[in-house]
Design goal:
37% helix, 354 residues, alpha/beta, single chain, binds ligand PBG, TIM Barrel
Length: 354
């Protein structure tokens, strides 16, 4: 158990002389003292409402071609792209720490990217190879894979682009195929992050038809068109290629009711879990979805959130140990069942050491 300091100023009654406004406080007013429950470490532990556990963590990691590669992502200090052999080692370590699931994202070689994102449908692509390798070596860990075309398209969009427009229904057909390929490679949880209309239904139907009835779907339900994804796009190599923005499919950050409608659709279409993304700037959405639907609900603490915290840690402006746990616990408090976070390994170590 970590030692917790108890400072003398933390003892109740520290400033009991006189009440606000100089009036004599009534006994009744003083009889209600919320600070009693905060006075000692044991009392705080007793009344604590939300605790982060290793069971709440999903670790996103990036894979790249090659062997023995751990390539730093410049805009995400401490995050690397792993070749598959290294990814397997990293995932084994994560599993050993009690992390239940990992989310695999590929860095696709520029030469393999094209207009239609065809590499997404190659059953021998990097992410599929990574799924197989992880399943073979660390079968006890859940694998989440992203369904969207952006790591594979030359224009960096999540769907097919024609005359400046993203084609919905044509994209959805490809996404359903992509999901099947990933599920066959060993992905346990298909996570459509593309925000096309009707994609959850199409993926669910494709999975059922293929007899993959146990594959779970974690829908990126409320995924906002956010500037906080910047460092991720560096990590998967799509920031240089992205033309324009994703506002015709990702949600407007001014909207809340729209998240409710998206959740209704995803749940009706067969999602097993829903997700809100980004995380900390969207805790209100998380709370509202959890309250409204009572579904397994996840938050994605995205790359930009990770990087801005790290930038402040590097400058000594924020305390790393404390801020990581506080930020992650805020997701639990807002109603998340779990969090996708680049801090997963670090947080799991902290939790296990406590
Ligand atoms: C791809 C995808 C993105 C993220 C997860 N899946 C980027 C985007 O939509 O542009 C962002 C994750 C992060 O920022 O950590 N569709």
């Amino acid at each position: 158990m970590a030692k917790r300091e108890e400072s003398p100023i933390g003892i109740a009654g520290g400033s009991s002389s006189g009440s606000p406004g100089g009036q004599r406080g009534s006994a009744t007013r003083r009889a209600v003292r919320p600070r009693r429950n905060r006075r000692s470490d044991w009392a705080r532990r007793l009344v604590c409402e939300n605790v982060l556990s290793t069971n709440d963590l999903i670790w996103p990691l990036f894979v790249v071609a090659g062997k023995g590669v751990r390539e730093p992502v410049a805009s995400m200090p401490g995050v690397v792209r792993y070749s598959i052999d290294e990814a397997v080692k990293a995932v084994s370590e994560a599993a050993g720490l009690g992390i239940p699931a990992v989310a695999l994202f590929p860095y696709t070689e520029p030469a393999l990217r094209d207009e239609r994102g065809s590499e997404a449908l190659n059953s021998g692509n990097l992410v599929c190879q990574a799924c197989r390798a992880v399943k073979d070596t660390v079968p006890e860990v859940g694998i989440v894979t992203d369904v969207a075309l952006d790591p594979y398209t030359s224009h960096g969009h999540d769907g097919l682009l024609e005359d400046g427009r993203i084609l919905n229904d044509e994209t959805v057909e490809i996404l359903a195929e992509q999901a099947l390929i990933q599920a066959r490679a060993g992905s346990d949880i298909i996570a459509p992050s593309d925000m096309m209309d009707g994609r959850v239904a199409a993926i669910r139907e494709a999975l059922e038809d293929a007899g993959l009835t146990d594959t779970q779907i974690m829908a990126y339900t409320a995924k906002y068109a956010s500037a906080f994804y910047g460092p991720f796009r560096d990590a998967v190599g799509s920031s240089g290629t992205l033309t324009g923005d994703k506002r015709t499919y990702q949600m407007d950050y001014g909207n809340t009711d729209e998240a409710i409608r998206e959740a209704e659709l995803d749940i009706a279409e067969g999602a097993d879990m829903i997700m809100v993304k980004p995380g900390m700037p969207y805790l209100d959405i998380l709370g509202r979805l959890k309250e409204s639907f009572g579904m397994p609900t996840f938050a994605y603490q995205v790359s930009g959130e990770y990087s801005m915290l790290c930038a402040a840690f590097e400058r000594g402006w924020l305390d790393r140990d404390k801020c990581v746990m506080e930020a992650l616990t805020s997701f639990k408090r807002a109603g998340a069942d779990g969090v996708l976070t680049y801090f997963a390994v670090e947080a799991a170590k902290k939790i296990n050491d406590a």
